[in-house]
Amino acid sequence: MSKSLWLQTAYSYEAFPPLDTDIQCDVCIVGGGLHGIATAYFLAKQGKDVVLLEKDSILAGATGNSTGKLTVQHDLIYAQLIQDFGHDGAKLYYDVNRDAVEFGKDFARRDELITANSILYAQTTVGDEQLKQEAKAYQELGIPGELGRNSELPIPFLSTLTMEDESQIHPVRFGQSLAEKAVKAGARIYEQSAVLSMDFEKRSLLTHTENQVRFSELVLSTHYPIEALKGMQILKLAVDRSYIMAAEANMALSGQYIAVDEPKRSVRTAKFDGETYFLLSGTHHTAGMKSETSKYYESLYTDIKDTFLLSSFITGWSAQDPETPDLIPYAGQITSSLPYVYISTGNRKWGLSNSIASAQMITDQIVGKKNPATKLFAPSRTKAGAQLLQALKLTGLVLKEFTGGHLTRIDAPICTHLGCRTRWNNAEETWDCPCHGSRFRKDGSVLEGPATKPLNLT
Ligand SMILES: Cc1cc2nc3c(=O)[nH]c(=O)nc-3n(C[C@H](O)[C@H](O)[C@H](O)COP(=O)(O)OP(=O)(O)OC[C@H]3O[C@@H](n4cnc5c(N)ncnc54)[C@H](O)[C@@H]3O)c2cc1C
Asked: Which residues line ligand 1 (CB under 6 A)?
C-alpha cells in the first residue's frame, strides 16, 4: 500500500508518546484524525482536561488519505436535503459546514490551505438536469453559486455549477497544526495507543498495553464505530472505497472539480514547497468487495496519461468513508441511555468540513452550549424509510458474507469484528472485510476498524 501524497509531505514532527500508565481526564477522545484532533482543540480551548488516544500515528486514517477539498460543495446534496429535511434543515447543514470552512481559512497557515473555486460538472443530459435542480436549491437557500460552462479540464462537459472561493487543504499539515495548538491549549495526545475495550458503566477504557483511562465523557472519533459498539450504528452505515493518484503538474488549476455523473472523477491540484501536484480520483467500489483492485488505479493512470497528458506519477492510494442513509453524518450523543458517549461518523467523503462542524457540535454539547445543529446530526434521528432501505441493503450483504465467513474459513481469514470472511486485496496487499469495512495488514494486524483484534492467520 502506498503512502498518500499528504503523508509523504507531512511536517516533520516528534511523535507523541504511547500511553504507558493509568490516567484520568474530563474527556477522552479515541482517534487522531481530523475529527478527534479538532474536538481536542475546541475542548481544550474551553478549559477541559482532554486526552486523545490514537492507535497508530495521527492523521494517517481517512483524513491523511483524502482529497483535501475543504468546501461546502459536497457533490449533489442541497436539492436532496431540501426534499428530506426541508429548507431549514438543508440551510443548517450548509451553515455549519460554511462555518467549518471559514474556521479552516482563519486557522490554516499559508502552505496548508489555498482558495479555489469548487465546481460540479455534468457530462450527460441527466447530470445537466441534476445541476439545474441543485442550482435551484442554492438559490432557495441563498447559497452563492453560478450555473454555466466553467471548466479548465480537458473533459467534454455540458454544464457546470460553480461556488467561488472555497478552499483546498494539505489535510495532514493542517491537522498537525491543529494538534500542535490543541497540545498548547492543554490536550494530551498519545500515539501507538489502541483502545481495545471500553466499560461505559464504569466510564473507563483499556488500551492494548492494558493501561486504563478513566473519563467523565468519551468521544469516539474512530471514523467507523469500533468493535466495542457492535450493534449500535452498524446497520446504518455503508462503506465505499475510493482510489486516488497523484502526478507532477506544471500548472495549478483555479478550480477543484467533481463530476455529478459517470465517469465519476474528482480533480484538484496542490501547490506547496515550490511544487505543483495533480490529483485524480473517482474510481470506487463497496469496501472489501473486490480482490482485483489494481484496475481501479489503472483507470486513473490511463486518464492522467491520455486525458491530462501528465506522465510523472508520484503515488496512488485508496481510502474509505462510511455513509449514513440520509446524507447527513452522525455526530453527537450515541444514544440517550449513554449521554456521556459521543460519536462522529458517516461523512460520505465530505468529512473535512463535517469533521470540524461535528467537533464543534460535540464540544458545545459537552460544555453545555446550545448548538442549532445538534438535532439534525443526532445519531438517534429516525428516518424510517431511508434506514430500512439501507439496513436491508447492508443486512443482505452482511448476512451473505457472514455466512460465507463461517463456511469457508480455510479460504481467507475471518474478520475478528463480526465473523465475516475477509478478501485479499491484491493491489494494497491487505485483507479487507466486505461487511463493515475492517482492513488488516498482510501480517493480520488491524489497519482500519471497526475490528480491534488482529486476524488469526494460522
Ligand atoms: C478517498 C476519500 C477522499 C476524501 N476526500 C475528501 C475531501 O476532499 N473533502 C472532504 O471534506 N472529505 C473528504 N473525505 C472524507 C474525509 O477524509 C473523512 O470523512 C474525514 O477525514 C474523517 O475524519 P475522522 O477523524 O473521522 O477519521 P480518520 O481520519 O480516519 O481518523 C480516525 C482515527 O481513529 C483511529 N482509530 C481507529 N480505531 C482506533 C482505536 N481502537 N483506538 C485508537 N484509535 C483508533 C485511526 O487510526 C484513525 O487515525 C474523503 C474520504 C475518502 C475516503
From this structure: 30-36, 53-56, 60-63, 66-69, 194-195, 221-223, 226, 242, 244, 281, 319-321, 344, 347, 349-353, 355, 449, 452
Q: 450 near 436, Cβ under 8 Å? A: yes
What is the distance in angstroms between the CA of the first residue and the CA of the last residue of the chain? 23
b/e per residue, 324-339, with b = 16+ CB within 10 A?
Answer: bbbbbbbbbbbeeeee
Of 29, 66, 448, which is best to mutate to test ligand 1, by the most ligand atoms within 8 angstroms of its C-beta? 66
Q: E strand or H helix at 89, and its extent?
A: helix 78-107
CA 312, CA 268: separation in Å to the nearest integer?
A: 16
| pLDDT, tens digit, 9 for 90 and up, residues 95-138 | 999 999 999 999 998 889 999 999 999 999 999 999 999 999 99
CB of 160 closer than 8 Å to CB of 121: yes
pTM of the model: 0.88
CA of 103 to the centre of ligand 1 (A): 19
**113-168+237-320 maps to CATH 1.10.10.10:** no
All structural domains of the chain with their residue ranges: 5-65+172-235+327-377, 113-168+237-320, 384-445
Q: Tens digits of per-residue pLDDT, 1-22? A: 589 999 999 999 899 999 999 9
CA pair distance 404, 409, nearest whole angstrom = 8
Work out which ligand 1 atom sits closest to the CA atom of 352.
11
Q: Name the CATH topology of 5-65+172-235+327-377.
A: FAD/NAD(P)-binding domain (3.50.50)
- Going from the Cα of 410 to the center of ligand 1, the distance in angstroms, rounded, reads 32
Q: Looking only at Cα atoms, what is the longest distance across the chain?
A: 61
User: Which residues are registered as beta bridge partners of 120?
Assistant: 161, 258
